[in-house]
UniProtKB/TrEMBL annotation:
Pfam families: Response_reg (PF00072), Trans_reg_C (PF00486). It comes from Paenibacillus naphthalenovorans. GO terms for cellular component: cytosol; protein-DNA complex. Transmembrane segments: none annotated. InterPro entries: CheY-like_superfamily, OmpR/PhoB-type_DNA-bd, Sig_transdc_resp-reg_C-effctor, Sig_transdc_resp-reg_receiver, WalR-like, WH-like_DNA-bd_sf. Keywords: DNA-binding, Phosphoprotein, Transcription, Transcription regulation, Two-component regulatory system. This is Two-component system response regulator. It comes from the Bacteria.
Length: 228
């Protein structure tokens, strides 16, 4: 991973030895780390600290991890939530993902696994923190608002840049027109959904994607970026 300076992580667990172990390890990796021993403390700390990633234990007395996740996501902050779940508790993982959790790690876990998952969430949700990120054949430079595809810089308008970045970062995921409009054009966009089709067509032209192998259309569902 590139420089981690400025990336903030909040750890939430009622077991002090787990907090201490993870805090030490993540601090040594270069992250800015704060900890919370319970759910209510976590919700309050998140408002002040504004973490990029929250590592959140499910089973805590009082306010459990599910409720903390729900409140963090409800507040509208772009926070990546990684939930810590008990072994084989599939229902916990499903419930967490339904409430907006971005990933989960099953206890017991290795520090290297957690670190890899944190890195994946940051690359996906906060590529601008690295300035530049490479995903498949794409290189996204958020500082220059430039995307390079197969070593060729694409001539993109600001909206085309944001749309292609959104598709690439979420590659493999079906994105509805409504979700694309919300994330790229904004929640207050009052235009027609057909604008998405116009921009998708333009991106396909610039990517020489005549057969729609990169940007797939799933009729009635939306679009999906498939990386080679």
């Amino acid at each position: 991973m590139k420089s981690l300076k400025g990336i903030k992580i909040m750890l939430v667990d009622d077991e002090p030895h787990i907090l201490q172990f993870l805090e030490l390890g993540l601090t040594n990796e270069g992250f800015e780390v704060k900890t919370a021993p319970d759910g209510m403390s976590a919700v309050n700390l998140a408002q002040e600290f504004e973490p990029h990633v929250v590592v959140l234990d499910v089973m805590m007395p009082g306010m459990d991890g599910f409720e903390v996740c729900r409140l963090l996501k409800k507040n509208g902050n772009n926070i990546a939530v990684i939930m810590l779940t008990a072994k084989d508790e599939v229902d916990d993982r499903v419930k967490g993902l339904t409430l907006g959790a971005d990933d989960y790690v099953v206890k017991p876990f290795s520090f290297e696994e957690l670190l890899a998952r944190i890195g994946a969430r940051i690359r996906n949700q906060f590529p601008n923190l690295f300035g530049e990120v490479t995903i498949g054949p794409f290189r996204i430079d958020d500082r220059r608002k430039e995307i390079v595809y197969q070593e060729q810089a694409l001539g993109l308008s600001p909206t085309e840049y944001e749309l292609l970045k959104f598709l690439v970062i979420n590659h493999g995921i079906v994105l509805s027109k409504t979700k694309i409009l919300d994330k790229v054009w904004g929640y207050d966009f009052g235009g027609e959904e057909n604008i998405v089709e116009v921009y998708i067509r333009s991106l396909r032209d610039k990517l020489a994607d005549k057969e729609h192998r990169l940007i797939r259309t799933l009729r009635g569902a939306g679009y999906r970026m498939d990386l080679p």
